[in-house]
Structures are given as C-alpha cells and as structure tokens.
Design a protein that fits this description.
The complex is a heterodimer of chains A (198) and B (479). By secondary structure, chain A is of the alpha+beta class. In chain A, 31% of the residues lie in helices and 21% in strands. In chain A, α1 packs across α5. Chain A is globular. The chains are: A alpha+beta (198), B mainly alpha (479). The interface between A and B is medium-sized, with 24 and 28 residues. Chain A: Its main location: cytoplasm.
Chain lengths: 198, 479
C-alpha cells in the first residue's frame, strides 16, 4: 500500500488553485517521475474542480484511487493512493491536514496563494508518516467517525466530466502539464494506458 | 532525420557506442528507462545519464531496436560477422531495450562460456533490465543459468579442497581454508544480491510471480537447508507483506519459507542425531554440496560420541517442536492482525487457509506417528516442558491466555479430542509455563465469528463465510 501525493487546493469559481503539495514518487521509474508528478497535480486540481462543496469522493483511475474532500469554505485536499490503501485512513488524513492548514494559514491567502507563497510545511511529514497506515494511529479510530456511505464513488475519471467534454482535450489544454508529460500521455493512451512507451 | 539506410546505420552505431561509454564512465548505473520525447534534437545524443540512471530518448528506439535485432539475427545465420567486442555491445543494447529476446541471452551464454564475459557482468545487465521490465521471464531464466555456472565453479573448487583435506588427514592448509572462506563469502554476497534484486522487482510490479519464484529457486539452490537464512527471510518479509496485503505472490513466498523451516527444524540436527553412523557418513558426503551451513558440520562432530549425541538430540527435538509451534503461532497472529486491520483482502484469507492447513496436516501426521511409534508421543509431551526460550513478549503471552481460555471452553467440540494441546494445557497449568496455543478448529471458528460479529464490510464477510465453509467441509470432515 502506498500514498503517492497529498495536496491542498482552493476551489475557486472556475478553477482550483494549488496551495501546497507533497509527493512520494520513489516507486516510479526515474525518468517518469516529473511527468507523473505533473499528472498528479493535474488530476488533483480537476477532481477538486468537479467536486461540490461539503462532499467527499473517491475516484478510481487504473490502479490508483484519488480521495478528495472539499469543505464548505472551499478548501479542499486530495490524496492519491493505490487501491490497497484503506480508504478510511485517507479521509482521516484529509480531515486532519485541512484542519491544520486552515489553522496555520490565513483564509485571505487561499484564493491567490501558490506553493511558493504559502507557509505550511507539515505536508511532507504527514505523507511519509501515513505511508504505513498502522503507524499513523488512524487505524484505531472509531469507525463511526466517518459515514462511509456518504462518500461518492466514481469508477473512472471520465465520470467526472461534463457532457461533450473529453479528457484528451483537458490534457492538451492543461497548464499543469509540460510538453514531455503531454507526449507521455499520448503514448500511454495509444498503448492502452497501463504500459508505457515501447 | 535519419531516414536513409546509411544515416540510420551511422546513428545506431553512435548510440550503441554511447551506451557502452556510459557504462564505462559510470559503473554504478542502477536503473534504465525511456524518456518520452517524440522528436530528436540536433547535436544531442539520445542517451542521457543522470544520477546513476541511464535514459534513452523514445524517438530513437524505433531505429535502434530493429537495427540491432537484425544485426544479431544475421550474425546467428552466419551471414554477417561480428567480433566479440561488438557482440557484447550489441547484445547489451538489445537486451536493455527488449530483455525477452532469447537469442541475445544465448549469445551471451556462449560468450560467458568462452570466458569473454564474466558471470557478475551478466547478473548486472539482468538487474538493470529488470528495473525497466521487472517481469521479463527470459531475464530471470538467464539469471538462473548464470547462478548455476557460479555454483558449479564453487562446488568444483570446494570439492578440490575437500579431497586435499582428506589427503592431509584433516590438516587443511591455511591457504585452502582461506580460499574456501573467500568463496563462501562470495556466495553469501551473491545470495544477498539476489534477494535485493527480487525485492526491487517485486516492488516495481505487484504480484510479480516471476520475481518471487526466482527467490524461491535461489533459496533452494544456494541456501538449501540453511535455517538461519530462512529465518532471516521470514522476519524481513514481515513488514513487506504487511504493506502489500493483496500481493498473493508475496504471501506464497512466506508459505514456502514456513514449510521449509518446518522441515528444516524438525529434520535437521535432532532427527538425524539419533541415526546410525552410516547415515552420518552419508551426511558428510552431502555436505560437500556448497551449502555453507554450519549446522551440518557441528552435527557431524557431535555424532562422534553416540551417547552425547542422543542426549543432545533429545534436547534439540524438544527445542525444535517449540520452534515450530512458535512459528505457527506467530504466523497466525500476523494473519489475524492483518485481516482485522485491512478488511476485504482475499489474499489474507487464503494465506490463513494455507497456514492452518499446514499446521493441521502436520498434527495429523504426528498423530499417525504416535499410533505407530509410541515413543514420539512422549517426546512431544515433554516438548511442552521447557520454559519458552524467547517468548519474553509479555503482551503477546497475555493475549494468548485469553485466546486460550476461549478455546478451552470450546475444547469438547473438537472431534479429535485427545489432542496434544489438551495435555499441554494441563502441564502448563501445573507448571505455570506459557507456551503459545496452537491454532485449532474451535479457535478458528471463534476467529471467524468475531469477524462476522464486528465487520460490516461485505467483502470481508464473504471471505469469512467462505473460510468457515472451508473449515467445515475440508478440515472438519477429516478424521
């Protein structure tokens, strides 16, 4: 079980604004890491944009699960994990991180902030501590804390999209993705996603 | 660019050379990969070296691969001559791009046999290929071939030393001893490296059957009967399986370790110690096989004095039974813990089945032995006597007691009433010694009920019910 990324975003009227992010890409091959990171940012932003305030959702994409929580004050967080990682622990982590973040960072800075200007350092620590869900002591928490039936489940990224919208178009328009990542996406797409180039 | 045949020729030769030079420049390259890059940039080599990682830009692969592929095939068909150095370079490039190309590995086998390549170099190439293609069957197969070459070398030298030792009536020459020590260190190093290669490949690709079965092969051939290695593997795998609860291959490896350990612990020193000198001389012969296990030697020496050996055998037998009991107990505890912490993974439930079945059949076997040979029964009963060697884990012991209490209440339900556990319990009560309780049919049933009572996860319930059904139909039906 593995956590790949943990990011905090502000859900603006049209798009989500990345405030801070932490990544653990050690399990990806070296030359893919930068592209993978860009894709994780792109995906996290897209998911926050498509999630309504005050709701929790899990989106399945290939062998990954993206868990999102957007609070009523428009502050949202996304954790990208593999399918083995317990969902409940992910939502505990999201609650905790958002709570801590909103205490430390003034809400005036949320709409316009970016990873360079926001002063919140705990994300990397949380990400590495939660790699082993049992050490993160979230396992012992009472199950009732979170009503799992209220979590919306999407089986693909596509189900987040609006009518007529295509993921390919969003990828090619995205500002989160560099040329190399777009090329990476195209090849992966052509090869039926799972296996990369060659 | 590079459209005409000549241009391709020049380009490819340059790239092959670049790859060779990269390895010369940096002998510590530990990963290979392809960099997504649809178009070539002028005056830049498509080979990139960053922080010990070797990358090939994707645009050149479509020129490179067919070219080296054809070149090697033409050489194989004797239509095109390549010198040894060129062969080494071309097969290296080819295998890094496509490690499942058997012909290329075969060419390297020949190069290895005539001494152009050394085994370590090929193990290294395979290791790199596995960073990009962690499952590649041909790479694993070639790896085993190379390891066999190393083993053969080792046993040839080991045998030579042995004969000399016999000539000198046991007075081994210091130089020889040093040499064989070097060799066994080398072999231990190779073993460690193989374990590392397997771990890396298993982490890169989930349920990587090829990697795990290679790991089993390595243990069977390079650490045969070496209980220490098996123990180390079992404990070092603990965290890994806890973090990969749906990786069936990883758990299968654990099952292998467990059954090897059981055979090893119950068969090695103890059982053989009581046997006659004839079998012990047989052992001496078999110990020329390069296993590097200190057990055998000490045991053979112990055999010199029959009476002492018998006493030692008795003690060892008691110890071995406790060890086996502890192994099973710990494995079942681990399994329960993981099932409770990570609900809904079938892998964990099938692991439970396997471990319980292993224990169950072992117990049936010992029952069978008891009816044919009464003495073993008494030995086993005595086995519960020794104060637990390293069961100092108080919390664990306390927990056992409670489980034990539960089990005790349901004991009469057990079909095979006269179980070993029963008498052990009474012994324990008398002496106040805490031995872990072995898993039994009732204790398994109460585990399933506890899961069903508490858990609402539909998958988990389904697996629990299936396990219960299996207990009833498979285990319950057996005498």
């Amino acid at each position: 079980m593995k956590l790949y990324s943990l990011s905090i975003l502000f859900k603006g009227p049209t798009k989500a604004n990345l405030l801070k992010a932490a990544y653990d890409l050690s399990s990806f091959s070296f030359f893919q890491r930068s592209s993978v990171q860009e894709f994780m940012t792109f995906t996290s932003a897209l998911i926050v944009e498509r999630t309504t305030q005050g709701s929790r959702a899990s989106v399945k994409e290939q062998e990954y699960l993206c868990h999102v929580y957007v609070r009523n004050d428009n502050l949202g967080a996304v954790v990208i994990a593999d399918t083995e990682y317990p969902q409940r622990v992910c939502f505990t982590l999201l609650d905790k991180v958002l709570e801590e973040f909103s205490r430390q960072v003034d809400s005036i800075d949320w709409p316009s902030g970016n990873p360079e200007t926001i002063n919140y350092k705990a994300l990397d620590i949380h990400l590495s501590k939660y790699q082993n869900p049992r050490e993160a002591d979230a396992m012992t928490k009472v199950q009732a804390e979170l009503d799992e039936t209220k979590i919306i489940l999407h089986n693909t990224m596509e189900s987040l999209l609006e009518r007529g919208e295509k993921l390919d178009d969003l990828v090619s328009k995205s500002e989160h993705l560099g040329n190399q990542s777009k090329a990476f996406y195209k090849t992966a797409r052509k090869q039926n996603s799972c296996c990369e180039v060659m | 660019m590079a459209e005409s045949e000549e241009e391709v020729d020049v380009l490819v030769q340059r790239v092959v050379k670049d790859i060779t030079n990269a390895f010369k420049r940096n002998p510590n390259i530990d990963e290979i990969g392809v960099i997504p890059c649809p178009e070539a940039r002028y005056n830049r080599s498509p080979i990139v070296l960053v922080e010990n990682k070797l990358g090939v830009e994707s645009w050149c692969v479509k020129f490179l691969l067919p070219y080296v592929h054809n070149k090697l095939l033409l050489y194989r068909q004797r239509k095109h001559w390549l010198d040894r150095e060129a062969l080494v370079d071309i097969t290296c490039t080819l295998l890094l791009l496509n490690p499942d190309f058997t012909t290329a590995w075969n060419v390297r086998k020949e190069l290895l046999q005539c001494g152009v390549l050394n085994p370590e170099k090929d193990l290294y190439l395979g290791k790199l290929a596995l960073t990009k293609f962690p499952k590649s069957p041909e790479t694993w197969i070639h790896r085993r071939w190379v390891l066999q070459q190393i083993l053969r070398q080792f046993s040839a030298v080991g045998h030579g030393t042995k004969q000399q030792q016999q000539l000198h009536q046991g007075e081994a020459e210091p130089a020889d001893a040093e040499r064989s020590q070097q060799l066994s260190d080398h072999l231990a190093g190779t073993l460690r490296q193989e374990m590392k290669v397997c771990s890396d490949a298993a982490s890169r690709y989930p349920s990587n059957y090829n990697a795990w079965s290679h790991r089993i092969w390595v243990l069977q051939h390079m650490a045969k009967g070496n209980i220490k290695v098996l123990h180390d593997e079992l404990s070092s795998m603990r965290l890994w399986v806890s973090m990969h609860v749906s990786d069936h291959s990883g758990f299968h490896y654990r099952q292998f370790l467990l059954s090897e350990l059981i055979t090893g612990v119950s068969q090695s020193p103890s059982c053989t110690a009581a046997t006659t000198a004839a079998t012990s001389s047989h052992h001496q012969q078999s110990s020329t096989v390069p296993i590097g296990s200190p057990h055998h030697h000490s045991h053979v020496q112990a055999n010199g004095e029959p009476q002492g050996a018998e006493v030692a055998g008795e003690e060892e037998r008691q110890l071995s039974f406790t060890t086996v009991l502890l192994l099973f107990h710990e494995e079942m505890e681990l399994c329960s813990d993981l099932i409770q912490s990570f609900p809904g993974h079938e892998t964990l439930w099938s692991h439970r089945r396997h471990v319980f079945y292993l224990w169950h059949s072992m117990r049936r076997e010992s029952h069978h032995h008891c009816s044919t040979n009464g003495s073993i029964e008494s030995v086993h009963l005595k086995d519960s006597d020794p104060v637990l060697p390293e069961a100092g884990d108080q919390s664990c012991a306390g927990h056992e007691e409670s489980v034990n209490g539960q089990r005790h209440a349901s004991e009469p339900m057990e079909v095979d009433g006269a179980s070993l556990a029963d008498s052990r319990d009474s012994k324990r009560l008398k002496r106040g010694v805490l031995l872990p309780s072995p898993p039994t049919l009732p204790s398994e049933h109460s585990f399933v009920s506890s899961i069903l009572d508490r858990c609402s996860n539909p998958e988990q319930r389904r697996f629990a019910l299936a396990y219960k059904k299996w207990l009833d139909t498979v285990i319950g039906q057996q005498p």
